[in-house]
Design brief:
Elements (H helix, E strand, L loop, with lengths): L4 E5 L2 H18 L3 H22 L2 E6 L8 E8 L7 H4 L13 H8 L2 E7 L3 E9 L5
Antiparallel strand pairs: 1-2, 2-3, 3-5, 4-5
């Protein structure tokens, strides 16, 4: 059984490490290659936001607690400035900086479950889950 794994995020190198760790755990859980790619892309998006907006944080991988249903939970936490308007940040194409505005909404599209909690001055927590659909 997969236990909790934490990857500190403070640089572009850490984003790569988190992607690799996420792919590895997804493979261990039995995800197909295409699903592993989606998970890795979502991890990149939320990790990049941590580096860009908060400076540092952590990606936490956990097995979701949902009875017999198996999957991977990815939690991105930081203690940065927070997101002043979550609804606006979740609009596809909106960017508070120079980006394409696909980060958070893109990550949401890539995963099965997506939740974001943010408080000004207290940081942000994004919780994403991908469920195993080909359970063997």
């Amino acid at each position: 059984m997969l236990s909790e794994t934490r990857v500190p995020i403070a640089s572009a190198f850490d984003i790569v490490t988190a992607r690799q760790q996420g792919r590895s755990l997804a493979k261990e859980l039995g995800f197909e290659n295409a699903e592993m790619t989606l998970i890795a892309a979502a991890i990149s998006e939320v990790s990049r936001n941590i580096v860009e907006y908060a400076g540092h944080g952590v990606i936490i991988f956990q097995p979701p607690n949902n009875g017999a249903r198996r999957g991977l939970s990815v939690i991105a936490q930081d203690k940065g400035p927070g997101i002043p308007d979550i609804a606006k940040a979740m609009q596809y194409g909106y960017s508070s900086r120079r980006g394409l505005g696909v980060g958070l909404p893109g990550a949401k599209l890539l995963m099965d479950d997506f939740d974001i909690v943010s408080k000004a001055g207290d940081g942000t927590t994004v919780t994403m889950k991908k469920w195993l659909h080909n359970a063997k």
